[in-house]
């Protein structure tokens, strides 16, 4: 379930007028911006952008970029984009880092539905005049390239059909690959990048039943191996995305110096999806409410904005 509290009353024109006023004169009225943007869903935010452009012949996103700064600007910018466009931006930023952030690419490829991923690929091509697969291939190499290109190109079956015999045989392939330390085996890449999520979950469950331990635990001993880390991330994103995102948030908050990029990414990505359940998972795991942990580790308008997305009044 979503964590944001969407206002009952909505008028795109009124909201556009409030945002215009907040950006005029000396200084920006950040409280007014948060009061509007953090309480509007994706469809409403798009209508506000359109109304703003029609009223003032100006791009709202560009205006906000010029008015805001730092982590607050980054969070607002990513929030106000259409979801597919946001994922395209996140993917591009991750790919073009000195060392590409493979985990962000895996999150996008493995957590989104086939239709959502297809929309991201369209948005990416429109925005960057390259395909997502092309840029992933250009900035990676070897087995990681094979796996990531396979994952971002996938259009998985989304129905309920599960083949138990197939799950058993592919669990065995994964067992043998781990036993022989052949994680980069083409069959491993094929299985992870083509099977439906429900089929893969059945395979992972069969693996656990046969080995009396989860596949991700069996991959833990290979922490120095970058390819294995990417495989683990893919498995965790497919198997239990809420649990995966809870850990990303936990690591972002607990490290020395908060990882604002990861914190912003997860909250903005999941606020309209399942952030409510991720918050519950966080509390169960850490005995501290997520909004309390976020409030302790952030400050100012950035803190106020994240807390509003988390559903705290």
From TrEMBL:
The keyword Metal-binding applies. Ca(2+) 1 binds at residues 25, 27, 67. SMART domains: ANX (SM00335). The keyword Calcium applies. Gene3D superfamilies: Annexin. Keywords: Annexin, Calcium, Calcium/phospholipid-binding, Metal-binding, Repeat. One of its GO terms (molecular function) is phosphatidylserine binding. Pfam families: Annexin. InterPro entries: Annexin, Annexin_repeat, Annexin_repeat_CS, Annexin_sf, AnnexinD_plant. Ca(2+) 3 binds at residues 295, 298. One of its GO terms (cellular component) is cytoplasm. One of its GO terms (biological process) is response to salt stress. Ca(2+) 2 binds at residues 253, 255, 257, 297. Belongs to the annexin family. A pair of annexin repeats may form one binding site for calcium and phospholipid. This is Annexin.
């Amino acid at each position: 379930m979503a964590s944001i509290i969407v206002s009952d009353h909505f008028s795109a024109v009124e909201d556009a007028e409030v945002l215009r006023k907040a950006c005029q004169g000396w200084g920006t009225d950040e409280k007014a911006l948060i009061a509007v943007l953090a309480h509007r869903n994706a469809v409403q935010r798009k209508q506000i952008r359109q109304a703003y452009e029609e009223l003032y012949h100006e791009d709202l996103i560009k205006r906000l970029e010029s008015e805001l700064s730092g982590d607050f600007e980054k969070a607002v910018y990513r929030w106000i984009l259409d979801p597919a466009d946001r994922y395209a931006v996140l993917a591009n930023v991750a790919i073009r880092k000195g060392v590409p952030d493979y985990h962000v690419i895996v999150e996008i490829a493995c957590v989104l539905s086939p239709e959502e991923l297809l929309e991201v690929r369209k948005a990416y091509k429109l925005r960057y005049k390259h395909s997502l697969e092309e840029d992933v291939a250009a900035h990676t190499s070897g087995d990681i390239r094979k796996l990531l290109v396979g994952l971002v190109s996938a259009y998985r079956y989304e129905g309920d059909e599960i083949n138990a015999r197939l799950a058993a045989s592919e669990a065995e392939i994964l067992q043998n690959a781990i036993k022989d330390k052949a994680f980069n085996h083409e069959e491993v890449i094929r299985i992870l990048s083509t099977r439906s999520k429900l089929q893969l979950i059945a395979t992972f469950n069969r693996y656990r039943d046969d080995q009396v331990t989860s596949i991700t635990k069996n991959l833990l001993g290979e922490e120095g191996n970058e390819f294995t880390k990417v495989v683990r991330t893919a498995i965790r994103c497919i198997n239990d995305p809420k649990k995966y995102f809870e850990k990303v948030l936990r690591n972002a908050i607990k490290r020395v110096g908060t990882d604002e990029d990861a914190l912003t990414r997860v909250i903005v990505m999941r606020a309209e999806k399942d952030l409510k359940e991720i918050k519950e998972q966080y509390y169960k795991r850490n005995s501290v409410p997520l909004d309390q942990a976020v409030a302790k580790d952030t400050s100012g308008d950035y803190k106020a904005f994240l807390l509003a997305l988390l559903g705290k009044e």
